[in-house]
Structure formats: C-alpha cells, structure tokens
Amino acid sequence: PFPLHRPASQNEAAPSLQLAQRPRRNRKAEWSRRLVRENVLTVDDLIWPIFLTEGASGREPVPSMPGVERLTVAEAVREAEKAAALRIPALALFPNTDPSLRDPTGSESLNNRNLVCRTVREIKRAVPEIGIITDVALDPYTSHGHDGVMEGERILNDETVALLARQAVLQAEAGADVIAPSDMMDGRVGAIRQALDEAGFQDVQIMAYAAKYASAFYGPFRDAIGTSATLVGDKRTYQMDPANSDEALREVALDLDEGADMIMVKPGLPYLDIVRRVKDTFAVPTFAYQVSGEYAMIQAAAANGWLDGDKAMMESLLAFKRAGADGILTYFAPRIAEKLKSQG
Ligand code: PBG
C-alpha cells in the first residue's frame, strides 16, 4: 500500500506523495506570487461617483453609505482636484435635486443651469484634465422617482427618450466628456448619438448602462439622491430581471449597434457572470458598477468588525478585473487610489 506516514526514527526522506504537479510551488513566496499573478488593479481602472447637493452646508453625510457625502459645487471641485492628484481618470456625477425642483416630467433635467451642468462647468474650468461622466436619466428630477415620464402607471418610452436626448446635449454643452444613460429606455443610445452629432458633439462618448438590473442593491443610492421616499412602485418594466443573462447580451448588442462606445454592467459583484459573458462576446470596453448596496454591505460589516474592510474592498475590486472588466465605478475609488499610491 501507499506509504503515507513513515516513522521519523527511521531517518528516511520525509514522507511524500509522488506528484508531478504541486500548484503550491508557485505560491511559496511573495516574489513568485507576484510573478505568476494574472490580474492587477491600478488607479487607471477607477471611476469615482460623486453626489451633488444644492445645500449650503458644503458636505452632507449619506447615512446608509458611511464615508460618502453629498457635495456642493465648490466641494465637488475640491474633490475633482483630489481625484486628479490621485490620477483617478474620471468622475461620475449624480445630483440630489432640491425637492421643490422635481416635477412629473423632470423638467429640471432640461435646465442648463441645473446642479449637474453647473458642476461640470466648474470642474472643467478648474481641473480640465479629468474625465467627466454625466448620468442621463430622469429619476433625480421626477417627483415620482422614475427614470421616465408616466401616464398613469406606465413609463412612456419614446416620450422619455426625446427628453433624454435633450438632456444629453445640455450636459455635453456644459463640458461633459462621456454621456452615460442609466435609464434603460429602448432606443435611447441611438437617439442620444444622433442628437449629440447634430449638435456638433461627435467626440463625446457614450457609456451605455446596457445591462442594468432591477436590483435591491440600489437602496442606499436612492437615499443619496433623495428618491427612496418618493419612488412609486418599482422599476421592473424597464430595468432587467435578475434571472436573465442572454437578455443582457441582446441589450448590449442593441446599444453597440446604436453607437455606444463603452458598456456598463450593473450591479457589479452579484453580476460578474454577466461581465464575463459581455466581455467574451463583444470584446468592447466593459465596465462594472459596484453599486451603493455593495459598498454599504462591506462598510457595515467592517464597522462591526465582521470583516477586514480594506481587504474586502481590494478583493472585490480585483474580482471585477478577473471577470474581464476594463474598469469599475466604485464609491471606494479615492480610498483605493490612496492605498495603491502608498503601496507604490
Ligand atoms: C437610476 C440609477 C440607479 C443608480 C444610478 N442611477 C438605480 C436606480 O435608482 O434604479 C444606482 C447606483 C447605485 O446604487 O450605486 N438612473
């Protein structure tokens, strides 16, 4: 029989299995683990989402997202300077619109002096080298919290798309580099591309939230932009069913046909299979959004001492890279950038 254990007293060679392959050999030391490492996270992979407020107080904490604050225009400019110093490539802006400015059709979205447009202009003036991504959707502006205009209980697709195309042009006029429609209306990427081109913005990119799921993980974001309390019903007639995967590929194919330059999958960690399928199928720039609920879970567990927050953060971000993502939108962006910088 196979001699697994020999008495040490016999002074023979240490007991050993006859293995041609010992995967542990490559893991024996840090230099070797570094040498065989397949994926790396760098600051170039990060997009930092920032919440904006009209409030006068400078910074307002978001209780369900510890460490995240809503910022006034002036504070947003300061964060943009910090992001540039950390070499974070781009910011994504999300407004908490004053409740008095919200109405059923989200008309504040078409005000070229709204919070987002003003912030884009100020950041572009102060920090021209940083990329600015603006969200195209009506939910920060509607009194009912939906991403489209409503007729009774229905979200009207084509009427909404017409508004989104105008919103996109205003954002581009303010200086946005990338337009990111997160509304999930049909045909909006094509309409936005056409409107941007007609307005002379051929170079403005479109990052399409192509595969965006109707997810419970968006809860803290809705607190941050102030739609939790007002949202009527849910978004399942436009955001995707979490049960589906082939449908994500169909959505991505349509958005690419319509002119999308980059594709977003959202949420992130629970949908890494979608990231992988999209990247393998289309081989286009593919991004993942580590959404508010994913952030909140790691922060809450870390605050309770239930896991090491820093390690969980880094591991979660590396997982996106392993799944094939070219970059990640994450509320951890400044913390990660600082950590990567200190690691040299
Ligand atoms: C909707 C939008 C959502 C998020 C960003 N834009 C989701 C929603 O409210 O349905 C969620 C982002 C996050 O959770 O971090 N336009």
Automatic annotation (TrEMBL):
E.C. designation(s): 4.2.1.24
GO biological process: protoporphyrinogen IX biosynthetic process
Residues annotated to bind Mg(2+): E251
Keywords, in A-Z order: Heme biosynthesis, Lyase, Magnesium, Metal-binding, Porphyrin biosynthesis
Xref: InterPro entries: ALAD (IPR001731), ALAD_AS (IPR030656), Aldolase_TIM (IPR013785)
Record-annotated active site: K212 (schiff-base intermediate with substrate), K266 (schiff-base intermediate with substrate)
Pathway recorded for this protein: Porphyrin-containing compound metabolism; protoporphyrin-IX biosynthesis; coproporphyrinogen-III from 5-aminolevulinate: step 1/4
Catalytic activity: 2 5-aminolevulinate = porphobilinogen + 2 H2O + H(+)
Organism superkingdom: Bacteria
Region (Disordered): 1-25
GO molecular function ontology, one term from the record: zinc ion binding
Enzyme class: lyase
Cellular component terms (Gene Ontology): cytosol
Pfam families documented for this protein: ALAD
Subunit structure: Homooctamer.
Sequence similarity: Belongs to the ALAD family.
Name of the molecule in the record: Delta-aminolevulinic acid dehydratase
Organism of provenance: Microvirga thermotolerans
